[in-house]
Amino acid sequence: MLGLLALLLAFTFSAALQRYDDRSQTVVAEADAIGTTYLRARLLPRGMHDEVQALLRQYLDVRIQEGRVDATEPVLHESLLHQAKLMEAQLWSQAVRAAEQAPGPVTSGLFIQSLNELIDTSGTRNAALNRHVPEIVLFLMFATIVLTTATLGYASGIAGHRVTLAAFVLVMLIALVVYLIIDLDRPRRGSIQVSHENMLSLQQTIGTAPGHPAQPDSPPNAPQAPRW
After folding, report:
1. Which of the chain's termini has less CB crowding within 10 Å, N or C?
2. Count of CB atoms within 10 A of residue 107's CB?
3. How far is C-alpha 36 from the chain's CA centre?
């Protein structure tokens, strides 16, 4: 039973850690997509790029806020998601208008390509945040823990001796591993959170661009260069 429990703990911990890594990678991918779209917005016809870049800055702020919303605030989370979808629709409308005014592959074509990637990475990040270890696996793990500890206690009673210190240490270690699994698997609650350093660095870079005020809330991290 201890061997089965060790196998279940290892499998579940690996699955939760993999999902945590996937969430972290989607944040980096979305930050790169937003930064690339922001740069390529300068290729749009005159009079459009300033409006598009301002909308992208607002979109970045909303995405950062949405990533920090706790699981206890589902109404705020849904509101920010809806606001981000509306901004994506506005950006796509701008892209369509730019394609009508300047249908060249360099002017509007590159911007449309990066904007399409931005929308895709946004959906991928939302899906990664909602992807968890299957509930049936967690239930099986909890049931195995209860049966194993009960068996240890029963065996100690049959043998006629008290539970040793090693058994208490074993139970505490099992509880710690279970806590880490649950914390990794629930990104909107607990002490282990997905880092938004790339998004915050991009926010600082965009805020300190010429003609735009710096945002004091952003940490002084070195920004990751967006792909061109």
Report:
1. C
2. 17
3. 19
DSSP 8-state assignment for residue 222: P
Q: Which tokens sit at 146?
A: 């209860």
Biggest CA pair distance of the chain: 87
Taking the C-alpha atoms of residue 187 and residue 20, their distance in angstroms, rounded to an integer, is 8
Q: For residue range 31-77, list pLDDT tens digits in order.
A: 999 999 999 888 888 778 888 999 999 999 999 998 888 777 888 88
| Residue 59 CA: distances (Å) to CA of 69, 76, 213 | 16, 16, 17
Q: Which two tokens stand for residue 79?
A: 């509101």
Alpha helical stretches, state H, 130-209: 135-159, 165-185, 197-207
Q: Is 194 exposed, middle or buried (0-12, 13-18, 19+ CB in 10 A)?
A: buried
CA angle 89, 214, 123 (to 5 degrees): 30
**Angle separating helix axes 2-40 and 49-68, nearest 10 degrees:** 160
Cβ-based burial of 198 (10 A; exposed 0-12, middle 13-18, buried ≥19) = buried
Residue 160: phi and psi, rounded to 5, are 80, 30
User: Which residue, among 91, 178, 80, has the nearest Cα to 125 in the 3D structure?
Assistant: 80
Q: What is the identity of the amino acid at 85?
A: K
Question: Encoding tokens for residue 159?
Answer: 């043998």
Chain center to CA of 107: 32
- Helix, strand, coil shares, percent, the chain, to 5: 75, 0, 25
Q: Other C-beta atoms within 10 Å of 24: how many?
A: 17
Q: What tokens were used for 49?
A: 């790029």
pTM of the model as a whole: 0.78
